[in-house]
TrEMBL record:
Name of the featured protein: GNAT family N-acetyltransferase
Domain N-acetyltransferase residue range list: 1-139
Keyword Translocase: no
Superkingdom classification of source: Bacteria
Any Pfam family: Acetyltransf_1
Organism: Rhizobium tropici
GO molecular function terms noted in the UniProt entry: acyltransferase activity, transferring groups other than amino-acyl groups
Length: 141
């Protein structure tokens, strides 16, 4: 007998069961993703990480999951430098595309300055804003 259990505190092993099952299904369906983490870090003078990009490459795409620039470095083109570094590594890994999403208007403009174009919008996420999904073509090396 099956049971559906809703929780806000899943264990690592419970999340692994979902992840491993979906990974196996997708690999059988479309081939292995060759997913690899990718991070571009901003470090301070003491070597501490104070911002950067966290994402991954898979199926020929770079996905930027998180991008954070400390307030003291904003307005200096840092987001563009981070994206350029991530895109260069993704291209070296053979990626042909990149995608990112945001609901922040300033981030949206920064991504568009870097050549990203909107391919989708989710209105009212969060309420009163839209979440935009953007993509960019890369040249694999």
């Amino acid at each position: 007998m099956m049971k559906i259990d809703v929780t806000d505190a899943p264990s690592e092993s419970e999340l692994a069961a979902i992840s491993e099952g979906l990974t196996a299904f997708n690999a059988a369906d479309v081939g292995p993703s060759e997913r690899r983490p990718l991070a571009v870090l901003i470090r301070d003078d003491a070597g501490r990480t104070i911002g950067g990009i966290s994402g991954y490459t898979a199926w020929g795409w770079l996905f930027t999951q998180w991008l954070f620039v400390p307030e003291s470095l904003r307005g200096q083109g840092m987001a563009g430098k981070l994206l350029e570094a991530a895109e260069a590594e993704a291209s070296a890994r053979g990626c042909f595309g990149a995608w990112i999403d945001t609901f922040n208007p300033q981030a949206l403009k920064a991504y568009q300055r870097q050549g990203y174009t909107i391919f989708g919008e989710l209105p009212d996420f969060p309420a009163g804003r839209s979440r935009f999904f953007l993509k960019k073509t890369l040249s694999p090396r």
